[in-house]
Amino acid sequence: MNNEAIAKLLKLIAHDPQRWDAYQKLASIMLQNEEFHAAEQYFLQAISLQPTLLELRLQLANLHMRTQQFKAAHESYKQAIALDPKQAQLYFLDARALRNLGRTQEAILRLRTATKLAPQLIQAFTECVDLMLQTQQQSQAANMLRQAIIAHPEHAQFQYRLGVLCQQLQATDEALQCMQRAIDIQPTFAEAYHQRALILQQQGNTQAALASFDEAIAHQPNLPAPYNNRGVVLCQLGQYPAAIADFRQALQLNPGYASAHCNLGLALFENGDAEESYTCLESALQHAPHHAQAQYYLSMLKLARGEYDDGWPMYASRFQILPEKPSLPAEALWRETGSLVGKTILILAEMSLSDTLQYCRYLPLIKTFKPNQIIVAVPEALFDLLHAFWAQDAAILVICKDGRPLPHFDVYCPMLSLPAVFKTRPDTIPASLPYLAIDARYSAPWQQLLGPTRRLRIGLNWCGDADNKYDKRRSIPLYLMAPLLQMEVEWHSLQKEFRREDHIMLKRFPMLECHHPALTNFTDTAGLIMQMDLVISVDTAVAHLAAALGKRVWLLLPHQAHFRWLQTREDSPWYPGMRLFRQALNQPWEQVIDEVHQAITDCLAQRAIEH
């Protein structure tokens, strides 16, 4: 049939070479037969006879798009636009050609023009927003969506997308309004309920967030993300069994959901199952090898298990998810031990005061590599203590990490990366004690104030910084210490600050001497600690300071303890002689206090024998 039609058209052209319509029909037949080159030639012949006919330019441009000749397509669309500059569809089609040529900004301009000429062209708004987002133009994309909503106020998807963008741009109030409008337009819009829940969670409205997650799940029960994110909120509320059930449901719907594997691992750990937690975090990394959160938490589990060879290198993942990270050149990072002759190395304290006190033990090891100088940037709270300790060592300069420009250095290393650099294992920890000391002028006033005693003198630290994320877990209410404070012991508070409830309890415990007005910095605290026979502390910087000074320390640990204390051990390879008292799973602190009471009783009995 086609051959017969082609023959007739060719005969017609032979009779009248000006029949452009015959060339057009031939081109269309060739296009149907997928003889693209022939089709192109016939279209060009037709255009040469009718150069101002828009239909021909458009057909040729569409052929070029079909054959992925995007540059030629753009030229044809451009010529078509010149013939009819008010036709929005031409700008829209040319934008697709430009996008395929990688000329994104020009494509965006074409789409903007299309939306102005024909606001009813929904796809032009959609593709313009897509291109803006691909090129990280979030604010411009949000403005384009606002224009789309003016043209299409009942378009739920536009409301939803603007809400997502506003959330990313920290405009959470507008984001919430957009999600609500999307839901009003389309009451079964599960993704909008889900996104609204995420915004409410971000605003701290957890109960409303949970209700919105419930709505999302009710409307689309096979969507895994709402289960996963509802589980995150339940974890924040401490409802770990319910969170675990949600994460498992998300994984049943999507077994490759790396974030759900990771979140399940975290929830299991908080619920006391470190073994399955470890397995889940490994699964997360099998599905997403670069999942930073899974790497970070798995590294800490490895370190808690004593798997230092893998754990310390993996712990570098902290810089991908924690807000505090050194903005220093990667090429200057000290990654492995080697000669530092003639070089200045900068050691940056990070994380908590406890970490600085624990890992500053590595500074003498760095000296063995003969650096010109070691600069140690430490938190202001520890500056006086550490500056005084190393004041006589010309190789070590302690500076305050306070945001001011850093002095010149050749290489640098974050302090918590030092164990990885030195390939530290539990049996190679530099654990010689004491590795800190204070000048006699700081301890003498305390010695004079407290005077001699025949009784066992114990320093007590029962709580840390109330703003710490894990404070509720690690701190112990003072009233629980009552059985200890009633023993025949000389008790001294090592607390620099008290909480409101502490002031009430201290009136009931006059046997606990308080020195907080005189504890202006860690040097003062160190001077007081040196007068103690024993320090009993929760997991705070005070415990690390006492142990680093070589004092006897009993540490009271929550069930989910920091990885530095390893798992199940009653001692610490970081601080030989330290004794760990661990809270059992789902058990109150009273169990730990009872154990400490018995240990003090045994200690008093031994002292009685020795004296």
What descriptors fit this protein?
6-stranded parallel sheet, Rossmann fold, glycosyltransferase activity, TPR repeat, Tetratricopeptide repeat protein, single chain, 31 helices, Serine Threonine Protein Phosphatase 5, Tetratricopeptide repeat, 56% helix, 4-stranded parallel sheet, 611 residues, TPR-like_helical_dom_sf, alpha/beta
Query: Could you state the CATH homologous superfamily of the domain at 440-610?
Result: Glycogen Phosphorylase B
- In the CATH scheme, what's the topology name of the domain at 440-610? Rossmann fold
Mean pLDDT equals: 92
Principal-axes geometry comes out as elongated
Q: What proportion of the residues form beta strands (DSSP E)?
A: 5-15%
Which CATH class of the domain at 440-610? Alpha Beta
Question: What's the N-to-C terminus distance?
Answer: 119 Å
What's the tally of helices?
31
State the helical fraction.
Answer: 55-70%
Structure description:
Keywords: Repeat, TPR repeat. This is Tetratricopeptide repeat protein. The chain has 611 residues and is α/β, with parallel strands linked by helices. Among the domains are: 224-321, Tetratricopeptide repeat domain (Serine Threonine Protein Phosphatase 5, Tetratricopeptide repeat, Alpha Horseshoe); 331-421, Rossmann fold (3-Layer(aba) Sandwich); 440-610, Glycogen Phosphorylase B (Rossmann fold, 3-Layer(aba) Sandwich). 56% of the residues lie in helices and 7% in strands. It contains 31 helices and ten strands. A six-stranded parallel beta sheet has the order 7-6-5-8-9-10, sandwiched between helices. Strands 3-2-1-4 form a four-stranded parallel beta sheet. α28 links the parallel β6 (490-493) and β7. α6 packs antiparallel against α7. It starts with a helix and ends with a helix. 41% of the residues are buried. The mean pLDDT is 92.
